[in-house]
Amino acid sequence: MKVPALLCNNYLCNNYLCNNYFCNNYRQKIAVLFTTVIFWCPNLYAVQGENGWRNAFEIVAGGTYLADADADKMGLLYTTGIDARKVFAGSKSNIATVNLQLDMWCTDNQTRRPGFFEKDHDCDPVVRNAFVNFHASGDGKLNILLGHTELPFGLEVPVSTSKSLRTLLTPKDLAMKLDWGVGINGTLGKFDYSALLSRGSGIEYRHNKDPWSFTARVGHSINRQRFLPEPGLGLSIFRGNVLLTNGNISERERIALDGVRYFKRFGVVSQFSFGETDDRETWNGLVELNWSNSIESKVGYIQYKSYNQELLDGWEREKSASIGARFGQIAGFTWAVQYTREFSSFKSDGDQDVLGFQLKYRWE
Question: What is the dihedral of CA 229, 230, 235, 238, to 10 degrees?
Fold first, then answer.
């Protein structure tokens, strides 16, 4: 009996019906993902109490629906992981802070999926953050960072977009969001600063073709990353030869200004960057209007993005508008929805509608 490929490519994999090694292998990876959940969760607080680590466990399920795609319109992404943080203290001051964010990501039929996935149905371990921040001065004015971290560029510094539907300019503007490197950071009066010299290969460490990048930002002091950031201004620079997922090198230079301002429960978030991509003049912009209640358990936002490059025959533009909402923070659960209208892109002149949804649980 011939079994339809759809059964193997989606959720109905069956050892008796599907003689498809990859299908079975994918299902085994999903099983490992959720088995890990079961065994890790009961031990989080025990480990935290014994050695001073602050631990959190997170599991996310989300999907995107491309209304105008030719085929395979619905795609799903599952992630689970652990966040761990520990401050090593000395007799007079803190010596260093360790941050670890280790995940397992699984994709199922995503038309737009992260570049490290090799197949339509795949699972991969992901290192989001894994760094040590040495407190060189002991008073927060000078720290030395070593490891895998987010690039200190633009709104990525004050805004938390990790595993969220809401995105900013940086991943597309710089062709990466995280990288392996060494840097310095600290707080001087009312301003925070950060600089990072990194490999230039993004989430995976790759050294072919000798990529590199330098990123730096100075801005108003912030207490922590938040979904809705604290008010202030920031100035960033970036330069590097970035190794793309297709193996090519992209030479990029950027200078960016970002700002956050609130008017009671309404906020305005913006970022504008200027520079060059492979010797082509480039400028990009993002403007967002958001609203939230007093505890941020209900958040809504409208966002507009514009990417612009000068080619031989004139300027080429990619524009999109999004409206989204996030609800929850009740017993660790949050859920979010977002609708995006893509008016044009560098790859296609046609419009595209994208609907995203997400459910997240965080235990800490």
Answer: -30
HEC secondary structure over 283-326: EEEEEEEEEECCCCCEEEEEEEEEEEEEECCEEEEEEEEEEEEE
Task: Give the pair of three-digit tokens for residue 196.
Answer: 């990072």
Cα 236 from Cα 284, distance rounded (Å): 14
Determine the Cα–Cα distance for residues 248 and 239; give it in Å rounded to an integer.
Answer: 16
Cβ contacts of 9-15, under 8 Å, gap ≥ 24: 9/109, 9/120, 9/121, 10/108, 10/109, 11/108
Residue with tokens 């004015």: 141
**98: exposed, middle or buried (Cβ count in 10 Å: 0-12, 13-18, 19+):** middle
Question: Cα separation of 66 and 73, whole Å?
Answer: 5
pTM of the model: 0.82
Q: Which helix (H) or strand (E) holds 114?
A: none
Q: Tokens representing 220?
A: 């108003």
Task: Say if strands 178-188 and 191-198 run parallel, antiparallel, or are unpaired.
Answer: antiparallel
Q: Which amino acid is at 235?
A: L
Distance between CA 5 and CA 7 in Å, rounded? 5
B/e letters for 200-216, b = 16+ CB within 10 Å, e = fewer, are bbbbbeeeeeebbbbbb
State the pLDDT at residue 364.
Answer: 78
Q: Are 340 and 322 in contact (CB under 8 A)?
A: yes
Helix (H, G, I), strand (E, B) or coil at 172: helix
Count of all residues that appear for the chain in the document: 364
* Upper half-sphere CA count for residue 10 (Cβ side, 13 Å): 11
* CA–CA separation, 320 and 350 (whole Å): 12
Give the residues of the chain that fall short of pLDDT 70.
Answer: 1-51, 68-72, 223, 346-350
Distance CA 198, CA 146 (A): 10
Residues 352 and 330: beta-carbon distance below 8 Å:
no
